[in-house]
Automatic annotation (TrEMBL):
It comes from the Bacteria. It holds the Pfam family DUF1214. Residues 82-213 form the DUF1254 domain. It comes from Paraburkholderia phenazinium. InterPro entries: DUF1214 (IPR010621), DUF1214_C_sf (IPR037049), DUF1254 (IPR010679), DUF1254_sf (IPR037050). Residues 346-455 form the DUF1214 domain. Transmembrane segments: none annotated. This is Uncharacterized conserved protein.
Length: 471
């Protein structure tokens, strides 16, 4: 993706001070002064465009934070900070709450507030034939740490997570210390599930995942309490308007100190009132400045929509700050297209909705997806293909209750030469082929393959997902 630079500096100082927002936006730093706007309208529009793109993934990360950690009325509520909410039961066609559900690796969600002290993740020993992972995500949506089969192995362990202002040494009993750029972080755990009969074993493993403040882990006195935070209520209409600045300012107070690579960027953003913890009130702006920022937000939305249309691969959308290397548009596209995607070395997602003739796949037409032995999905851990109807992207009801198929599917049959044929259609392909049948709806559908622990050939282009062929 070729993107223009976001660091355009300069402008005329207007010296305008904004009125303070209500306390609900002031957060932990209620005494922080109001922001100052110094950009002329033309410059303000250009800055607002870039700032909106920068903020976009943080805004929708905050949406998840608010729903999971702050809103007890939300279906997604996990119980607050420092608590796991585990999911273990497979999804079925009756589950319509989420799109493209994943039955391979049920989730374990948790949020941590690291301002007071670090926290410790404790994991049990997991059998070597079972994959598991904890993906750790900061407020910027960077994947900054991984614990699990690929990175730390399947042995039991204690892993410490510290915020940007903790500078202690590795405590006794800790296997590894991970340092976050932000004081608030999210973990998205995944534990491999091989089917309904495996649920109890997965639940037994999940019950052993623990989060403990460092002081409790060391049986020592806890540090003094930190200031209570008043989290602003999530309002998507406001968060995607000029008011995105108020949300961004609230979040930036948990990202201090500023990353050296963003010093100039933040100096530029400050010209439209963006500053950690600072209050922002659009009504206090001159009409021309307010309109310019609103136009900049619209420009940012348009640029993001265009970038999404031209994004053909997800392989490089997710990763650490170093992986993304200052490409804020790519980070925004990642959030828009599928926030919290794994770093490519952990897992990739590929698939198709069209056949060799570039026609939409439909269940009334039988297809075969053929893999030569040398072209089977190159996965260190496992792979699967899941069927979703279109346009809803839900699982598909079928007489054999099979919603995905892969190398862990019981009874799947390979050819004498090691090749594999997957039969994709609405009606049964016949008793001799049902072991390799992925049932489809009568109408349009999408097939998504998930490859866990992919070989480099998956994301360097030398391996490709086979095109469904008509039978």
């Amino acid at each position: 993706m070729n993107l223009s630079t976001l660091l355009r500096l300069g402008g005329i100082s207007l010296g305008l001070t904004l009125a303070m927002l209500p306390q609900q936006y002031a957060g932990a730093q209620a005494s922080t002064p109001a922001a100052t706007v110094s950009a002329a309208p033309d410059e303000a529009r250009a800055i607002a465009k870039d700032a909106y793109i920068y903020a976009y993934p943080m805004l929708f990360n905050y949406k998840t934070l608010y729903e999971q950690a702050e809103d007890p009325g939300s279906k997604s509520y996990v119980g607050g900070f420092g608590k796991f909410r585990n999911y273990s039961h497979p999804y079925g066609p009756e589950n319509k709450d989420i799109v493209t559900p994943n039955n391979d690796t049920p989730y374990s969600w948790a949020w941590l507030d690291l301002r007071r002290e670090p926290w410790v993740l404790t994991v049990p020993a997991v059998k070597n034939d079972r994959y598991y992972v904890f993906q750790w995500i900061d407020l910027f949506t960077y994947n900054f740490a991984y614990v699990g089969s690929r990175t730390t192995g399947n042995g039991a362990g204690h892993y410490l997570f510290a915020g940007p202002n903790w500078h202690g040494d590795t405590p006794k009993g800790i296997d590894k210390v991970f340092r976050s750029e932000t004081d608030i972080i999210l973990t998205l755990g995944r534990t491999a599930l091989s089917g309904p009969s495996d649920v109890k074993d997965v639940e037994a493993i999940q019950k052993q995942y623990r989060l403990t403040p460092l002081s409790a882990f060391e049986h020592s006195s806890a540090p003094p309490p930190v200031a209570k935070v008043a989290f602003p209520k999530w309002d998507e209409a406001k968060a995607t308007s000029i008011d995105f600045i108020a949300y961004l300012n609230f979040l930036l107070q948990f990202t201090q100190p500023t990353a050296p690579s963003e010093t100039e960027l933040m100096q530029r953003f400050a010209k439209i009132g963006i500053a950690p913890g600072a209050a922002f009130d659009p009504a206090a702006l001159p009409a021309a400045t307010r309109e310019a920022i609103e136009q900049g937000v619209a420009d940012g939305k348009a640029a993001l929509a265009d970038a999404e249309k031209h994004t053909t691969s997800s392989y490089d959308l997710f990763g650490s700050r170093q992986d993304l290397n200052g490409d804020y548009m790519k980070r925004a596209v990642a959030a828009a297209m599928g926030i919290y995607g794994n770093t490519k070395e952990e897992a990739v997602y590929v698939g198709t909705r069209i056949n060799a003739d570039h026609e939409q796949l439909v269940g009334s037409q039988p297809y075969v997806i053929h893999f030569d032995k040398k072209d089977l999905p190159p996965a260190k851990f496992f792979w699967s293909m899941t069927m979703y109807d279109l346009p809803a992207r839900h699982l598909v009801a079928n007489p054999i209750h099979r919603y995905s198929i892969g190398d862990r599917t019981k009874g799947i049959k390979y050819g004498a030469d090691g090749s594999l044929d997957i039969y994709v259609q609405h009606n049964s392909p016949g008793a001799d082929k049902e072991s390799n049948w992925l049932p489809a709806p009568e109408g349009a559908y999408d097939v998504i393959a998930r490859i866990y622990g992919p070989d480099a050939s998956v994301f360097n282009g030398s391996w490709t997902f086979p095109v469904p062929q008509k039978r």
